[in-house]
């Protein structure tokens, strides 16, 4: 799966305590390492992403390591073992 890490979303908040906790709660999954292909970093954060190359322009939360989450505005190839979770808090934790 190819995702696009979105700029300008760091100030957004949810009721889960962190975006990573939001992702864990609504994906019902646990990530142990960064899902970016060939990355084994373990310091995970909940990143705001979009699907790359898709007409779907919704924002999602997806686990990325701190390094890849800081790398905004680039497409990333990630493993598809993890689910994308809606970043729209009115649909989730709002």
Characterization of the model:
The chain has 94 residues and is of the alpha+beta class. The chain has one domain (2-91). It has two helices and five strands; from the N terminus they run βαββαββ. The chain has helices spanning 19-27, 66-70; strands at 2-5, 44-51, 60-65, 75-77, 85-86. It has a five-stranded antiparallel sheet. Strand 2 (44-51) and strand 3 (60-65) form a beta hairpin.
Estimate nothing, just give the exact number of structural domains: 1
What would you report as the Rg, rounded to the nearest angstrom? 12 Å
SSE run: EHEEHEE
State the helicity in percent bands.
Answer: 10-25%
> What is the distance, rounded to the nearest whole angstrom, between the alpha carbons of the first and last residues?
28 Å
Beta strands, count: 5
What's the story with the biggest beta sheet?
A: 5 strands, antiparallel
Please tally the helical runs, counting DSSP H or I stretches of 4 or more residues.
2
Derived from helix and strand composition plus strand pairing, the structural class reads alpha+beta
Taking strands numbered 1, 2, ... along the chain, how are they ordered across the largest sheet? 4-1-2-3-5
Shape: globular
Low-confidence stretches: none
Q: Tell me the fraction of residues in β-strands, as a range.
A: 15-25%
pLDDT averaged over residues: 90
């Amino acid at each position: 799966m190819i995702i696009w890490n979105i700029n300008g979303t760091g100030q957004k908040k949810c009721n889960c305590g962190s975006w990573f906790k939001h992702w864990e709660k609504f994906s019902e999954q646990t990530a142990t390492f960064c899902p970016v292909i060939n990355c084994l970093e373990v310091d995970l954060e909940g990143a705001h992403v979009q699907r790359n190359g898709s007409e779907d322009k919704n924002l999602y939360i997806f686990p990325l390591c701190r390094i890849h989450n800081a790398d905004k505005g680039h497409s990333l190839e990630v493993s598809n073992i993890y689910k994308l979770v809606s970043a729209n808090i009115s649909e989730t934790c709002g």
